[in-house]
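LOG
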Amino acid sequence: MIERLIEEVMEREGGYVNHPADRGGATRWGITEAVARAQGYRGAMQALPRETAAAIYRRLYWRDPGFAAVAERASALGAELFDTGVNMGPGVATGFLQRALNALNRGARDYPDLVMDGRIGPATLAALDGFLRSRGAGAETVLVKAMEALQGERYLALAEARPANEAFLYGWLANRLAPQPA
């Protein structure tokens, strides 16, 4: 699953980009220069190998944040976390999940509220299991929709807070707010 998701995100992000309004600076395959350097890449960003970018995606945006464990339970949700994590950071994506799970637990009757720590650990996985078990068929779809609602609100807030981000808003809404196929 992750190999397909990585291919899709690299296709969507494209090759080398250095948009003047993007605070992230130069990117290749969607990997920022800061992330590439932090992961040991020393070459020119225009030459960042596809395989290096894929390895970074696998480690930083799938395995390390625990999205693979989520995907084992709910594949569409794992795909959504990966895509949101790539675009906004894994901690933000996990925060959306935790916030949605807290709001959907019927006053902590289905499972306890989570501490909003932006990390997927045993408590978040237990809450996810409780949500999926208590809500049955369609639960995963509802959770993905809740996360996308939070993501869309954040995009609008980013554009409102910094007019230069308006250059990206249309693309964010068009390309990021769609459930990722499992």
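LOG (cont.) second protein
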Amino acid sequence: MVRQALIDRRPFLLLSLALSVSFFFASDGRVPGLWLTAWKGACVGTLAIYAWDRGRGRDTVLIAAVMALGALGDVGIEFAIELGALFFALGHLVAILLYRHNAREIVQPSQKMAAFGLLLGTPIVTAMITAPQDGWLLATIYALILGLMAATAWVSRFSRYQVGLGAVLFVASDLLIFAKEAGRIDPAITDWLIWPLYYTGQFLIVTGVIQRLRGERHNPAAV
């Protein structure tokens, strides 16, 4: 009955999970490139549809846009890492707007320190990983936006165990990408870690936001 309820009420969430797990095991080079790229984009693309379908209001539009831009980033990065980074950066800017609009009224000093660490630590670590290779400055600028996204998510009124953690996992996945591109880590390791960290992060973010928004509407069927 629980499984049937999930299928009936959240078909796009279930579809996204199925696409993500199957993509992870299919991304071994046996599936033709364009098909695999479309498959990859559909994983987070269906999270955007899920958000749009389950929510209402401006914040719903924003989180759906974040997921849609993430899906475009997933596709774009397969053609050029700069193109993917552009879409992801736009998504982070939209997410920052969402989180700032939903800032937590009271933030404990320890949480402020954690947010500050994400804001500064993300670009600093990125610079340490990528410099002095070509493109390190652009990577660091992108990482500053990424760090700001994670910091504002951490001090937003959304659950830190979902949205905050999801943002941190997103940061971790991108740092692994930088390390892989810079030749700082064995690709065999990153290939097993990047996608699970990234997708889990996106999944936690979108479900955490939608859960809070629907809960405030006193809907017992909230995610």
